[in-house]
Amino acid sequence: MGQCTAGYRERVIRFDTLTATEAVSVTGATCAVRCAHCGGHYLRGMLSPAEASRLAASGGGRLAGRRVKSFLVSGGCRPDGAVPLLEHEGLLGELARAGRLNLHAGLVRTEDEARALARYAAAVSLDFTVDQETIDEVYGFQGVKASDFIRAYELLSEFMPVTPHVLVGLHGGRVRGEREAVRVLASLGARAVVFLVFIPTRGSRFEGAEPPPVEEVLRVLEGAREALPDASIVLGCMRPKGSYREKLDAAAVRARVVDRVAVPTPAAVQEAARLGLEVVWSDECCVFPSGPVPAGCASPEEGSPL
Prior knowledge:
Elements: H1 3-11, E1 12-16, E2 21-25, H2 49-57, E3 62-63, E4 66-67, E5 70-74, H3 89-98, E6 100-104, H4 111-118, E7 123-127, H5 132-139, H6 146-157, E8 162-168, H7 178-187, E9 192-197, H8 214-227, E10 232-235, H9 242-255, E11 260-262, H10 266-274, E12 278-282
Parallel strand pairs: 1-11, 1-12, 2-5, 5-6, 6-7, 7-8, 8-9, 9-10, 10-11
Antiparallel strand pairs: 3-4
């Protein structure tokens, strides 16, 4: 672990509330795939293109009393794993003028597509797995291989900061390909990885499944910390609520296996205070650089993982 990263991590943790980032779906509530773990459920909570365009026209403005400074732009997947963002370049341009964009790009296959997305993106989020059974049975993509996820990461990384997202328990609550995904990301030189946790979601094929045990999630995070000592390890916003979330948050902060927590519970905040950590707060999405960077460390513009 680099001296800068190690010293900084010992005393600082970042918490992201996401209150100033609004989610947009370029496909509205429509998804052609309806993956087993989601079923299109989460698209329904995002702004439609028309709603997002009106908000952008107000300069970001306010939504439900919140100041909106950035946008997570996503949408339903096509059967080949792509998200049709570039079919909505007009909207991307409007949103980029109103705030910075985190693009949920899906599987990008050409350099031209990656270069085009880079015109609008401050950051890109990429769901990442290399487990073929999960690709076939959970995502249900057609003709997609693990190598397509690796290639998408490589293409996007040529032009913009990319934060892969690994969903722990993606296969119906079972942990099976997550550790291999971490190993591959380490070999690719990933500087930040967001870890999500499977949520049994009403209306999805996996609605009756259970989340992975907190202890198993922690083991995945511990393995990631070991494999990626200089990367930023982030506990992302998509994780079960209630006592499960409280237990996981407190344990992850206590073990110092995460550098950032999105939408932290009171248990996470209390644990950070107990450990005497300096807390850097952000009101935007956890993939955006935020807050001060110590002398000698990379700046956000240089792709700081901190």
